[in-house]
From TrEMBL:
It comes from the Bacteria. This is ABC transport system ATP-binding protein. The keyword Lyase does not apply. The lineage of its organism: Bacteria, Thermotogati, Deinococcota, Deinococci, Deinococcales. It holds the Pfam family ABC_tran. InterPro entries: AAA+_ATPase, ABC_transporter-like_ATP-bd, P-loop_NTPase.
Length: 218
């Protein structure tokens, strides 16, 4: 049984069909890239897989259970979407990493500052990074906070929407190593990448799922 499965997905925007009958299976342990031209609906697909965006048809299952049958906060704690530009408002980096642990969906988890420091260390940042004002971070630094926060929350599937696109090459490689290490760290995990960088896809993904642009109908 696939870990995350989508079948017969249908979605249009402003009367334009993005996908008509899209299916995708992601097995445990897999790292998959979704590819397609700008505007083909890659972000919308990842958001739909995360339960953040409505579908017009089709079904998504996690561990064989329909998305609609999961309590949504719990589903989203398993299937986590990381956008290219994470929204980070006031507070320090430490505040941002700690805050999700106060939510009901994560209340069974404990925040361990040492784990956060270890992850940030793997990304090449020291403990002082935790004290920075999150609202003033650069785009790449914001992505590191989002990646760290997501990993600390131990999801099952991470959906990475250009989630390293603002990082310098060295930090990108570090992030890729951390993410692939995370994937190998437990049996039932998976990664789904959207990346416009073919070299990155070749490094991190074992296969590519193409999103074909649909013909425009009158
Ligand atoms: N909330 C929305 N309402 C209406 N149209 C939307 C919405 N979100 C996205 N779209 C449109 O849907 C199409 C697909 O958008 P999406 O962001 O998924 O593309 P993408 O494949 O990720 O593109 P890129 O590679 O440029 O990031 C685009 O034409 C976009 O303008």
């Amino acid at each position: 049984m696939a870990l995350l499965s989508a079948s017969g997905l249908r979605r249009s925007v402003d009367g334009r069909a993005l996908w008509q009958d899209l299916s995708l299976d992601v097995d445990a342990g897999e790292s998959v890239a979704v590819v397609g031209p700008s505007g083909s609906g890659k972000s919308l697909l990842l958001r739909a897989l995360a339960g953040l965006d409505a579908l017009e048809g089709g079904e998504i299952t996690l561990e064989g259970r329909a998305q609609a049958g999961w309590p949504m906060p719990r589903y989203r704690s398993h299937v986590t979407y990381l956008p290219q530009r994470p929204a980070l408002d006031g507070g320090t980096v430490l505040d941002h990493l700690r805050r999700p642990f106060t939510l009901a969906a994560h209340r069974h988890r404990m925040f361990h500052p040492g784990e956060a420091e270890a992850l940030l260390g793997a990304f090449g940042r020291d403990g002082a990074f935790l004290r920075l004002d999150a609202a003033t971070l650069s785009g790449g630094e914001g992505q590191l906070v989002a990646l760290t926060r997501a990993l600390l929350l131990s999801p099952t599937v991470l959906l990475l929407d250009e989630a390293t696109a603002s990082l310098d090459p060295d930090t990108t490689r570090r992030a890729e190593r951390v993410l692939l290490g995370w994937l190998r760290g437990a049996a039932r995990r998976a990664l789904v990448w959207v990346s416009h960088d073919p070299a990155q896809r070749a490094r991190v993904a074992s296969r590519e799922v193409p999103l074909q642009p649909q013909p425009v109908t009158a």
